[in-house]
Amino acid sequence: xxxxxxxKTIEELxxxxxxxxxxxxxxxxxxxxxxxxxxxxxVEMTNISGKGRTALAEQYCIGRKQPVAEAVxxxxxxxxxxxxxxxxxVEAVYIPDDDRATICVSTQAGxxxxxxxxxxxxxxxxxxLSATEILNQIFSIPDSERLTNIVYMGEGEPCxxxxxxxxxxxxxxxxxxCQWSPRRITVSSVGYIPGLKRLLQESxxxxxxxxxxxxxxxxxxxxxxxxxYPISDVLALLKQYDFRHQRRISFEYIMFGGKNDSLRxxxxxxxxxKGFDCRINLIRFHEGAEEKSNTHLSLQGSSPExxxxxxxxxxxxxITTTIRRSRGEDILAACGMLVNALQEKx
Length: 346
Ligand code: SF4
Hints:
Low-confidence stretches: none
Largest sheet: 10 strands, mixed
Bound molecules: iron/sulfur cluster
Strand order of the largest sheet: 1-2-3-4-7-8-9-10-11-12
Number of strands: 12
Radius of gyration: 21 Å
Structural class: alpha/beta
Helix content: 25-40%
């Protein structure tokens, strides 16, 4: 298969241009065609010589691939299935919300992290996505031009595929690329420290940490990562960075009835996050996720009243806390529900 240009940096595109006999400045032209004008064929690149375009088409492809299936939720959320170069399938979710439109992208096919409440975790790991495949989800959904925000919260642990994630962020934010502000991008992580360190050092985008329980032994029951990279180490790392200004840190907290929603938990959460300029997003647990997951922990969602009490306690204690509205539950597009179900409709 011919190498893709989507996902290449300006330096690499310049090398591509030189390799087919084009002048050095054609690298910049290629970047403009691919990242700003969103060209899907070489024929469109009218300021590049005909001979150059033919040579490019012989040796390279653009790297754009349309989704192979789609589902639309009654709330307007749309889920798309993409096939990877390795023949795996991944999902991306488009979430319109008033003047915002967010895409939730996958970074791996399946996931290794094995969180007990997550349907994606039940898929097992089937490979890393390349930067081309991450960017293609953003570029190739029908509503791509409307997007205002990107969240790396789909299938996979982004920090475990950090090279491709950082490359895709560079291209989305670089002056030669899509010129997005990094403040419109949020990367979520369970706290895979080696990759998280690089994300913090090498990008300016927002970070969301999946916390879900402030007590290490209880957290480990639902998130095996706690054993390898304890949340205390993750927080110690985060404390070295400045989140008081433009860059934001948030903590995701799925609420399980009787498991992590007591006052004891809220109080410990408050202690743990003391001194952090952060926000907590409380997320309703989707029970369908547990049914299909590989656990017998019999998890169920907290009641709306308990979620409100939990939120109010934290807010009253000075931590901005919100209850996140669930989207796309009817098409299994909500948090932790991505299992490539669309693949079965193929
Ligand atoms: Fe992987 Fe995220 Fe699911 Fe955990 S919650 S298994 S990190 S996809």
